[in-house]
Amino acid sequence: MQKKIKRSFALLTLSITPLLLGKVFTQQPDKVIPDKYTNLKNPLSTDAKNLAAGAKIYKKVCWTCHGDNGKGNGPGAREIKTPVADFNNPVVAGRTDGALFWWISYGGNDMQPYKDVLSKDEIWQIIIYIRKIQNK
After folding, report:
1. What domain range is 57 assigned to?
2. Alpha carbon distances (Å) from 110 to 28, 113, 128
């Protein structure tokens, strides 16, 4: 009996693991991010002014899909084919600020590019806010 339970648990684990990993990795496919972006540092200070500005822009531009805590569960996320990036996911959270700058600028999956919509400073302010809400 115990052997059957262990085998069933092992099969269940093997069945679910690829699905969970698939969700993690479909959020942001590994596009080739140019080195100049990967190593780019945020030129803005993480002061209260930039954090507040980032929060305001995030709520206007990003919240609909990414939600309150950046988990990719905003009300608009249900309408999108591919999973919306969860900023708390270790793969996404591990990206450099420069890589996030590139993603926001050039878009990804179903996300539109914002390089012609937001200024560079506004993108950096959003990144300051994203770092603040990660893992909350």
Report:
1. 28-133
2. 10, 10, 23
